């Protein structure tokens, strides 16, 4: 009797499943692009996204604009800074801490209110002026650290603002790509309606409300938001840059932190596009007709050397030997299934900040062995080095297998590599404490990947002696007067072409000094349905969704 | 009975305070910066100090705990550092989704477990027993996240019958008990149900076998009671222990599974915990652990009371 009942239930379940297969899919004239993100939550929507540059990619440059932006129109050229909500800018000749930005006329926020100088001042104050009603501590960290010298903003007239920096800093226009313009009127509307014990509580409530119903000036407008589940954006048909009005009507962003889940969602047709598909599934995705995109990103997977007294990396021959002993092509084609670009510096040829390093980073084992022998090491006298790394982490690619690959490769050049594997957040926190701190646990290199979007993040924070812990990320306490001088020169050169040349000089000097073990650049792999067309994957952390169509 | 219930409720108070203290301390003694979600490693020292003060992390730990407990007693678990959203609302939404999943899994797992356990216990040492026991062992042994992935490959990728991820066509906000939504529940619920199904099967099988071998069953049969009547006695005697096991299993399921909810992108408490852990979002982590721990305490209380109601000997103890 029991068995009969179970069999009947199973039959009913099978019929139910079969009927699901025949379930009609809702037809819609609206074109919808569904994207599976790697993030576990929707990045913050209130203007200053969290979750690093993936956050900016999905809820920053989509819904908002900044005074300056990135050129995302080419897959071949380096992505450079272009005008955004500012049409032009220049530094004051008499006082190099003051900049004049001319604003783009005729731009409106998604709530219909005008974008003007007041809006710029309001948005600067939201992260820099602690007594401003809209000041929000939760937005400060991800913003102020990316524009470390900006001090204040002042309205000159409706379409002109003056920005002041703490010291002369030619990087400001690049840094400003990180300050997104939110609608002050919309926030004020929420503030007026908010309940709270005091102004701070009301302000916090207003930002929470704003995050659910945000207004920027970007090519996409917020349509609906379910925290941790989905964000729906619709095209802004009135976008100021007519060439970048989206071709798709609606974009749905879904957090899917697990790579296999994302891949399954794509394979089953539940989404049209996934970020970072499971590497093992790439051949199957290709075979089933899905399109794969990848391109060099401004990202570096390095070993950052300790240069404190007694560190084995203080000998430039050892640093150069390590750089010459790694077969990066082998790493790319073997372990990473093609999903990396071999790193020969922070920037590769073609980038305006690459320069002309004399030291050519390539795989040359005999040369590496020779350098090690000159430094006093050999098959019977190996050099022990200890590397602190993590088992996973944002941007870390596949840290353990990659480090084990390096361990094997460097063993052939008389290195004895020991790995100190710790949890990702701890590694990240230790990064700030430096090689002298007990948290380094005796390591003489750390393996934290870094974004190389702007000169401060790519070069200055690692190479300038003043950036040693606890100030910033010069973990290894590099103290090279030449670097300090070149940083100063780059920061105080205000003609963009000359500034780029100064940065190229700094980069070339760092490569010549083998300041890092440069290993790989990530390539931001993504897979999508053949229905998705018009995709241009630039050499950037970001992508422009505007030219994309659905067949 | 009322005195027993009152006594059990009084016991809950120190347990709850201890749980709150332990979960506060646990998240604070783990290494890493609590502001990592909003403070990049390249932020200046000045900025770090400013934010530490803004979030109250510059105060001594006992003060932080006292303030947190005071707010928690007023139903305020603070705001998430990463999102700025109130923790209580985040946790309750996630718990609601996990409850939906846990109940569906409990219906499948407990029904199958009791049925298989009774059959196996009744037909002990026969091929039916062996089959049911193998099923139970497989349920307990197979890694559920692996099973989840296999089910996704078969039913979502290959057959395209059921969705691979998510909690409804438009998210869990618009959840409804219709097939359009239930089809999102099928695979995660089956995956979640296999372990409780296996445990319940083994428990019920052992209980049924033991009870059937007891003298009073022989006496019942000798008195001429038909098998259905004997079975009713068996069930009644097995119920308190089986109920306790099911209560614990339901507790585990209500706690959410980080692995299953991540594999299916099911926005429950496991998914939330995963996110809170990776973002080192202390208020969210503390709030989620506290609410889940309270669920366990409450569920154990209810199971104790239910057991006492079924078996009067318990309340005397």
Short description:
The complex is a heterodimer of chains A (551) and B (317). Chain A has 551 residues and is of the alpha+beta class.
Tell me what the structure shows:
The complex is a heterodimer of chains A (551) and B (317). Chain A is an alpha+beta fold. Helices cover 32% and strands 19% of the residues of chain A. Chain A has helices at 2-21, 52-60, 117-128, 137-144, 172-175, 184-193, 199-212, 259-267, 282-287, 316-324, 328-335, 365-374, 399-411, 424-433, 455-463, 481-491, 496-512, and strands at 32-37, 68-70, 81-83, 86-91, 98-103, 150-157, 160-165, 220-226, 230-235, 250-255, 273-275, 291-293, 299-305, 341-342, 383-390, 415-422, 445-446, 450-451, 516-521, 526-528, 532-533, 549-550. In chain A, strand 15 (383-390), helix 13 and strand 16 form a beta-alpha-beta unit. Mean pLDDT of chain A is 91; it is low at 1-27. Chain B has 317 residues and is mainly alpha-helical. In chain B, helix 1 (2-29) runs antiparallel to helix 12, helix 4 (87-122) runs parallel beside helix 12 (282-310) and helix 9 runs antiparallel to helix 12. The two termini of chain B are 12 Å apart. Chain B is built from 13 helices and no strands. At the A-B interface, helix 1, helix 4, helix 7, helix 8 and helix 14 of A face helix 2, helix 4, helix 6, helix 7 and helix 11 of B.
